[in-house]
Design brief:
about 45% strand, 16-stranded antiparallel barrel, about 15% helix, alpha+beta
């Protein structure tokens, strides 16, 4: 290709000959054709100037064409060379959920021939793995002791793959499944099954609409991403009182987006309606629904003590009427056994439930302080003249968590105190203290976590005939997000 181009010296010689010939043509021929007496010196000069301008324009056009040919040759050589780039474009950045956690730059992905099957303009394949080592009094902080005690184990806690996408028509979607479902107790979570499966319309920021299966927005710790929580497992009050993923619909948004654009994050709301009998169950247990609402307020955003800081407040409420056989504590345990241990609460007869919670999250630079209180009242419903199979009770609990980065964006220390009062037997409270370290090798994308949990049972302490009332556990986790 490069040999086909004229040599630069040859091109210059051609230009000179062409210029001289043109000058002779435009000057001599008119002199012979015209009457010397009729043509003035000014006419000759004007003709010469026009001829020179035309010649200059032709030379400029030729130089531009030559430059374009040279660029094409260089481009072809770069594509065929041994070090030709696979991709060209800006690198993408991945940011962890916590502002203090590491921000890293990922290398360009390899060239893969994968295309959306529909009309979506963005399609992302991702997921994460969480693998635990649990030793000591395993899951005693969840009330699993005595006859329900678990043994030391390796545990595939979560192994999820998800597909997310966006449409130009202002729709987005998510489809996610989990390979690591078994928790050793619940027979309904023993194989691959769906977690988040929904479609969301975001055309109006004040009123997004989501339909499908997703988390019921009740409880701060529950709605935090599994890859972003500060301890290896969520607290017992969160697990006992919050609700599993549900099938339903939700309206949510930021109502101040257009009214006060600078304060658009000040208020966020969520209002949802669900079947109310947990995930992957398409049949409703009755003709009634679960109603869930959450309101968040960004009370402060600015600087404190020279550090970026913010304070977020939240409140939640839900109401549900359930039928016999519904598990009202599917995420963890709530029913108090005779020895003070806890198991999931499956209703022996219909009920009516109301629950509320409040939470606060203060962040000052490398320091986080989170607190949450939850309360649930469960009332039996029976036919007239029929005695209920359980008595009304009120369960409540709280946790307080503090986190601090010992090494910025790398090493974080965490302390948490939690307490649950199941409200079914006298002195049936369970409380724990957790201490831990989180090492962010590559942000949340590659993370090591270590927790030590000390738990004690008020019921066991008041009734020593049932055995030990204090328990200890060590948990380790490797987390990979892809």
């Amino acid at each position: 290709m490069s040999q086909a181009l004229p040599d630069k010296v040859s091109i210059m010689r051609i230009r000179i000959v062409f210029a001289v010939a043109t000058l002779v043509f435009v000057s001599v021929i008119p002199l012979r054709a015209a009457d010397p007496a009729a043509q003035s010196q000014a006419d000759r000069l004007r003709n010469l100037e026009q001829a020179v301008q035309q010649l200059q324009q032709r030379n400029a056009d030729q130089e531009q064409r030559n430059a374009e040919l040279e660029r094409e040759v260089k481009e072809l050589k770069s594509r065929n060379g041994p070090f030709a780039p696979i991709l060209s474009g800006p690198e993408e950045k991945a940011t962890a959920g916590n502002d203090n956690k590491a921000v890293f730059t990922a290398p360009p992905p390899p060239l893969v021939d994968v295309h959306p099957g529909g009309s979506e303009y963005k399609l992302t394949l991702g997921g994460y793995l969480q693998i635990n080592l649990e030793s000591g009094d395993v899951s005693a902080f969840e009330g699993r002791f005595g006859e329900n005690a678990l043994k030391d184990r390796f545990r595939l806690r979560r192994a999820r793959v998800n597909l997310t996408g966006d449409f130009a028509e202002q729709f987005d979607f998510k489809v996610e499944g989990d390979f690591g479902q078994s928790d050793g107790l619940s027979g309904s979570r023993t194989a691959f099954s769906g977690t988040d499966i929904f479609v969301n319309w975001h055309g109006i920021p004040e009123a997004n609409v989501r339909v499908g299966q997703f988390k019921a927005y009740f409880g701060l710790e529950w709605i935090m991403a599994d890859t972003s929580i500060f301890t290896i497992e969520r607290s017992l009050p969160t697990g006992a009182i919050t609700q599993e993923r549900q099938i339903g619909a939700m309206v949510w948004g930021k109502p101040l987006t257009n009214i006060l654009p600078d304060q658009k994050d000040l208020v966020t709301y969520y209002a949802a309606i669900f079947n109310g009998n947990n995930r992957n169950i398409t049949d409703n247990d009755n003709n009634e629904f679960m109603y869930v609402g959450r309101l968040e307020l960004l009370a402060f955003a600015g600087k404190l003590m020279g550090q970026e800081a913010n304070l977020k407040l939240g409140g939640d409420y839900f109401f549900s009427r359930d039928e016999t056989g519904t598990n009202i504590s599917p995420y963890t345990n709530l029913l108090v056994n005779t020895d003070g241990s806890l198991t999931p609460f499956t209703l022996p007869n219909p009920d009516e439930r109301q629950a509320w919670s409040v939470d606060a999250w203060l962040k000052i630079g490398p320091f986080d302080l989170i607190g949450e209180y939850l309360d649930e009242r469960v009332r039996p419903r029976t036919a007239p003249g029929v005695a209920p199979a359980f008595t009304e009770f009120e369960a409540n609990g709280f946790y307080v968590l503090g986190g601090y980065f010992l090494v910025p964006k790398k090493l974080q220390a965490v302390v948490k105190w939690e307490h649950l009062n199941p409200g079914q037997r006298g002195n049936d409270g369970i409380q724990s203290i957790t201490g831990g370290l989180n090492y962010y090798i590559h942000g949340e994308g590659l993370e090591l976590m270590a927790n030590y949990v000390h738990t004690w049972s008020d019921f066991r302490e008041a009734n020593p005939q049932f055995g030990d009332d204090q328990f200890d556990e060590v948990l380790l986790r490797m987390q990979v997000v892809f």
